[in-house]
Write a structure and sequence with these properties.
heterodimer; A: mainly alpha; MetI-like fold; 12 helices; 74% helix; B: alpha/beta; three-stranded antiparallel β-sheet; 19 helices; 49% helix; disordered N terminus
Chain lengths: 280, 412
């Protein structure tokens, strides 16, 4: 065997064990009635698991919830992140300090953020509803209409800093010449932003969007810590649904099939965004 | 030289096998247990067991509820158990027993003279019985009762309601601007299911009929859910659609609500001087739930099927559930499961008084488990999700219950 193949062998072996085997095994599981409490009676089901989940209302609802969550949370983060980055770029003094403070939420474990907001926003115990009530505002943050939106806000609180970081780096790397030329031509701040900053920043925005969207699809901790998918199924997200099916009800066959559907959707999303990024 | 080498190998092999077999080593008991006040009592009592049995080392692996199901499952699927003694929540009993995870205890019970298994309250005992074999021995109960602010009922000359119709009328009557008749728990999943099922019993409904057919969308169930939603909309605190145990308890303890359906052993905590309810301590009473038949929850002690030394595991279970230790446990604040203990005047005196224990026995004797069958855990989630959807107005009552029936049918 050629040396270069031999050199790659350890990595190939490690990847097979760590990645390929679980993937193939979970694909196999997804075609079976595989329950952890009935391992002596695993039955082949063909595409039945897939057919079922695609027609299953709770799965559909979880999918819609997750997409709404991703779209909402990532949009908020994009707008806020870009706004803050533009402001921070102009900050002359205390820039490093402001940056450090603004980045802090990103370094907290999501489950802790979930628990924190569960109590901050709790209608009985929460500090936020308490002070809102003193100015006459009463908001039920986790009722059936607002719960998903509240989760988006929490996600935005934690992950806007990530967008900020990306955009700040992007802004600082932009060429200076076009901006100077625009200023000489007397372009207004808005026109400069719209016609120069945004188009030049496009690759960075798309990369940030892909990373954040993929990450937001995996939302689990806030749901687990705060709503457990409720009220009703208003905040049941896809990963929470998969977790419940697989590890609370032990129906690994269906859970694996759901995971594969999720992978399919994510692949599609990545391809669409990636194509958008390469089109200039 | 050769002998030395042989000896070294033997020692190494011995050490290695000891390491592999880990906690199932003879002389050590590893117990998985939920981290709740009842565990604190058990832990302290167990020191006595350790003193009486110096050959057995007992270690507890205490954890929150959410972590237990996965851990028990992985231990059960391993070739040798991580835990020699486990506690099993009632919805898991049939599922685990039929999966072959648990050891039948009938022979141990029969051989244990003076154990008096019949002394455990009937409905609690039955939870551990699957297809005629006993797989679990009751640890503690969490049956539901109606906890009321007796002072308010006395003041207004209202009797504590015993039927559901009366209950709904009374909680409506007690509600005014910032005081509510009932602190309810419509939180999705377990909580709403646990509360609403008492209402279902009160209207004469059940999840399944005697033939095992699903009756979750029966007229009785529709009536129970309609009444539940009516009471929630008229008499429960605003914005409480996601409330669970903690929020409801807080509302009652802080004097914002007059009644709640909750675990019977919350009464002593509410009435404790200097406790959570401040000046209201002593003003609460425990009553049977409206309609009389209550939802029963319980934990049971079990021995996993893949435990090597089952005698040792039984020795501990037998000891901790024996009459003598059970009495100490209840006096120390544990939730009782034996009839003789609940009826013991010494327990009344040292515990929470005769009234409490008499009401408790009444509750326990007419109680039925929250859920049953091999998919009981999933059933609670399915029905509990639909109930929550109906209470929050996302679905009509009939639609929600029809969907619940459909989901349960599939999960079976």
């Amino acid at each position: 065997m050629h040396l270069r193949f031999r050199l790659i062998l350890p990595l190939a072996a490690a990847m097979t064990v760590i990645m390929a085997y679980p993937l193939v095994f979970s694909a196999w599981i997804s075609f079976h009635d595989y329950r952890l409490t009935r391992l002596q009676d695993v039955r082949f089901r063909g595409v039945e698991n897939y057919a079922f989940i695609l027609s299953d209302a709770p799965f559909g609802r979880a999918l819609v919830n997750t997409m709404t969550f991703v779209a909402g949370a990532v949009s908020i983060e994009l707008v806020l992140g870009l706004g803050l980055a533009l402001l921070l770029q102009r900050l002359v003094r205390f820039q490093n300090f402001a940056r450090a403070v603004l980045l802090a939420p990103m370094f907290i474990t999501p489950i802790a953020v979930g628990l924190m907001f569960r109590f901050l926003l709790n209608s009985e115990l929460g500090v936020i509803p308490y002070y809102l009530a003193t100015i006459g505002v009463e908001i039920a943050w986790f009722d059936e209409r607002l719960a998903l939106f509240s989760l988006m806000l929490i996600d935005a609180w934690q992950w806007t800093p990530f967008m900020l970081l990306m955009f700040l780096a992007g802004l600082e790397a932009l060429p200076k010449d076009p901006f100077e030329a625009a200023r000489v031509d007397g372009a207004s701040a808005w026109i400069t932003f719209w016609n120069l900053t945004l188009p030049l920043l496009r690759p960075v925005i798309l990369v940030a969007l892909i990373i954040r969207a993929l990450d937001a699809f995996k939302v689990f901790e806030y749901v687990w810590a705060i709503t457990r998918g409720g009220p009703g199924d208003a905040t049941e997200t896809i990963l929470f649904h998969i977790y419940k099916t697989g590890f609370r009800f032990f129906r690994l066959g269906e859970a694996a099939a759901m995971a594969y559907v999720l992978i399919g959707i994510l692949m599609f999303l990545v391809i669409v965004l990636y194509t958008a990024m390469r089109r200039r | 030289m050769r002998t030395q080498k042989w000896l070294a190998t033997a020692l190494f092999a011995g050490a290695a096998s000891a390491m592999v077999s880990g906690s199932s080593l003879a002389g050590s008991l590893n117990i998985i247990i939920e981290e709740v006040p009842d565990y604190d009592v058990v832990r302290v009592l167990t020191e006595k067991f350790a003193a009486e049995n110096p050959g057995i080392e007992v270690t507890f692996d205490a954890m929150p509820f959410d972590a237990m199901r996965d851990k028990i499952l992985t231990s059960a699927l391993a070739s040798s158990a991580t835990y020699n003694v486990i506690i099993v929540d009632n919805p898991w009993m049939e599922e685990f027993a039929k999966a072959g995870f648990l050891t039948p205890l009938d022979d141990f019970i029969a051989a244990d003279s003076g154990y008096d298994f019949e002394d455990f309250v009937g409905p609690l005992r039955d939870i551990g019985v699957v297809e005629g074999s006993t797989y679990g021995v009751p640890y503690y109960n969490y049956a539901l009762g109606l906890i009321v602010r007796q002072d308010i009922f006395d003041e207004q000359g209202i009797a504590v309601p015993t039927t559901l119709d009366d209950y709904v009328d009374v909680v409506k009557k007690l509600t005014n601007d910032d005081f509510y008749g009932a602190a309810m728990q419509p939180q999705k999943g377990y909580k709403v299911m646990e509360e609403w099922k008492n209402w279902l019993y009160a209207t004469g409904g059940e999840l399944f009929n005697a033939d095992g057919d699903i009756t979750i969308n029966s007229p009785e169930a529709v009536k129970a859910l309609e009444m539940y939603i009516d009471a929630f909309n008229t008499s429960a605190p605003e914005g409480s659609v996601n409330w669970g145990f903690d929020e409801a308890l807080r509302a009652v303890a802080s004097g914002r609500a007059a009644t709640m359906l909750s675990y019977n052993w919350m009464l002593p905590a509410l009435n404790a001087k200097g406790g959570m309810s401040g000046d209201l301590a002593g003003k609460f009473t425990l009553n049977e739930v409206p309609g009389g038949k209550a939802v029963l929850g319980s934990w049971s002690w079990s021995i996993p099927a893949n435990v090597d030394d089952k005698d040792e595991a039984w020795k501990y279970i037998s000891w901790i559930t024996s009459k003598a230790v059970a009495k100490d446990r209840v006096i120390a604040g544990g939730a009782p499961v034996r009839t003789s203990i609940i009826s013991d005047p010494e327990v009344w005196e040292k515990g929470f008084g005769e009234d409490y224990y008499k009401t408790l026995l009444g509750i326990l004797e007419d109680a039925a488990p929250l859920s049953s069958g091999t998919s009981a855990e999933e059933l609670i989630d399915i029905v509990g999700t639909e109930l929550s959807a109906a209470v929050s107005g996302q679905k009509s009552v009939q639609q929600a219950l029809d969907d619940a029936a459909k989901g349960v049918e599939r999960a079976r």
